[in-house]
């Protein structure tokens, strides 16, 4: 497989959208043959997995399904560069100074949360990064249609970009922002990462001081900021707002758009599949199907008909060679539409039910409310040493119930002590000083209504998601 350059990727991306469905399908098939062949030859894991798979792949169903658990269990055999080992990557990740730096000078490394119980360590090569960037610039940006007045506001605001997400770890958004600021130092004055872990008063104060004209973040964080904007404490005037990392509901989009008086765009992807989708001018998500294969499946990994909501989804990343992601199980529920989008794009429309955790609302001693972002408190919990999996449930305005499982059952008491202390300290730092953190005897389990695993949710009857 050849290294992908920016000029080649730009030219190909422009051409693909203009040459029609047959040309996109031909690209997809050629790239599937290439990545499957490369994985078979350079990855010991895929070499074994594809031992009985034909050399020529006529349809993707001939390839076995892969899971995060199995791939991570065989990390050193999964990667295609034998100089990459899990021991060395984990040592790299353990050093906070490594955030924003490339492993071995040629791979971006990130980690995922343990929302499904198994965190992943993921590497992306430079060719893949080129593809991700080009897809964003060529397909995502044109859908954001700004008036001359809004364009002037961007210029007047010196293109200040605020990203509100979990900071301090090797999460993809944090890594990419740190990498961008390290390699392009001039951006340090105009782009900043704001921690979603921070107390809301501190976050509002810092955003007001920075005065961003572009804001990106989790829908739950943006929803909270929109409420602060309506209350008058947040005084920023963004021209563009982008949501990612969680499912953006129609109600959230309306609230955020109304509060800030600007367009709200949406993105669906994952750390394994960066650049998976783009949103069109009609606010519909389209799959970049020349570089990704998306298969909506049932509980037995069998395909579901177009338009029907799946139980899961298999994703194939055709760009990344260092860690091939081929027919990889994601926990999201999706529906691929067969009808073309009225926007005119030839790329398929996808509806997504992804991460749907709740914002938790606790009472403050003063009588007010403390809003706790789900990804923020989940990150605090997941970083507890020895924790395998946990679930956080609000059952009263002043109680947080925790279901947990330790990696080593013999150390469960110690892990619980550390976990409860971390959660109590985090909630107290936010101002929720009277919340009781209690442990449930139940293990983490599927949500009784949705049948899916939800890591952070509220059972209070009048909760508004």
UniProtKB/TrEMBL annotation:
GO molecular function: phenylacetate-CoA ligase activity
Keyword Ligase: yes
Enzyme class, UniProt record, top EC level: ligase
Keywords: Ligase
Enzyme Commission identifier(s): 6.2.1.30
Bilayer-spanning residue ranges: none
InterPro entries reported in the protein's UniProt record: ANL_N_sf, CapK_Type1_Caps_Biosynth
Region (Disordered): 437-465
PANTHER family: CAPSULAR POLYSACCHARIDE BIOSYNTHESIS PROTEIN
The protein's name: Phenylacetate-coenzyme A ligase
Annotated source species: Mycolicibacterium chubuense (Mycobacterium chubuense)
């Amino acid at each position: 497989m050849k290294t992908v350059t920016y000029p080649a990727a730009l030219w190909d991306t422009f051409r693909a959208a203009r040459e029609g469905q047959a040309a996109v399908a031909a690209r997809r098939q050629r790239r599937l043959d290439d990545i499957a062949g490369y994985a078979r030859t350079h990855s010991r894991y895929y070499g074994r997995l594809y031992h009985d798979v034909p050399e020529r792949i006529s349809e993707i169903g001939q390839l076995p399904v892969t899971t995060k658990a199995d791939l991570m269990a065989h990390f050193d055999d999964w990667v295609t560069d034998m100089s990459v080992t899990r021991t060395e990557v984990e040592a790299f990740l353990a050093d906070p100074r490594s955030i924003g730096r490339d492993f071995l000078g040629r791979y971006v490394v990130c980690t995922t949360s343990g929302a499904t119980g198994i965190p992943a360590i993921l590497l992306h090569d430079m060719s893949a990064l080129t593809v991700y960037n080009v897809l964003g610039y060529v397909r995502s940006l044109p859908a954001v249609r700004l008036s001359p007045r809004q364009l002037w506001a961007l210029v007047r605001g010196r293109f200040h970009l605020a990203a509100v997400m979990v900071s301090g770890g090797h999460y993809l958004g944090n890594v990419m922002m740190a990498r961008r600021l390290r390699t392009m130092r001039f951006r340090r004055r105009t782009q900043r990462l704001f921690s979603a872990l921070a107390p809301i008063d501190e976050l509002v104060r810092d955003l007001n001081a920075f005065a961003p004209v572009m804001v990106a973040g989790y829908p739950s964080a943006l929803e909270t900021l929109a409420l602060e904007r309506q209350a008058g404490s947040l005084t920023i005037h963004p021209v563009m707002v982008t949501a990612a990392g969680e499912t953006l509901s129609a109600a959230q989009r309306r609230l955020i758009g109304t509060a800030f008086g600007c367009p709200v765009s949406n993105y669906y992807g994952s750390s394994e599949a960066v650049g998976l989708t783009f949103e069109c001018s009609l606010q519909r998500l389209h799959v970049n199907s020349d570089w990704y294969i998306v298969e909506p499946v049932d509980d037995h990994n069998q395909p579901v008909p177009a338009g029907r909501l799946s139980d899961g989804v298999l994703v194939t990343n055709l760009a990344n060679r260092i860690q091939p992601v081929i027919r990889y199980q994601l926990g999201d529920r999706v529906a691929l539409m067969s009808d073309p989008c009225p926007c005119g794009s030839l790329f398929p429309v996808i509806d997504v039910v992804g991460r749907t955790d709740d914002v938790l609302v606790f009472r403050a001693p003063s009588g007010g409310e403390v809003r706790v972002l789900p990804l923020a408190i989940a990150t605090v919990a997941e970083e507890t040493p020895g924790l395998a999996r946990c679930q956080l449930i609000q059952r009263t305005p002043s109680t947080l119930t925790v279901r947990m499982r330790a990696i080593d059952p013999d150390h469960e008491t110690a892990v619980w002590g550390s976990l409860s202390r971390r959660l109590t300290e985090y909630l107290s730092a936010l101002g929720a000083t009277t919340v009781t953190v209690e442990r449930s005897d139940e293990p983490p389990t599927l949500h009784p209504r949705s049948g899916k695993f939800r890591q952070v949710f509220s059972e209070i009857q009048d909760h508004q998601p």
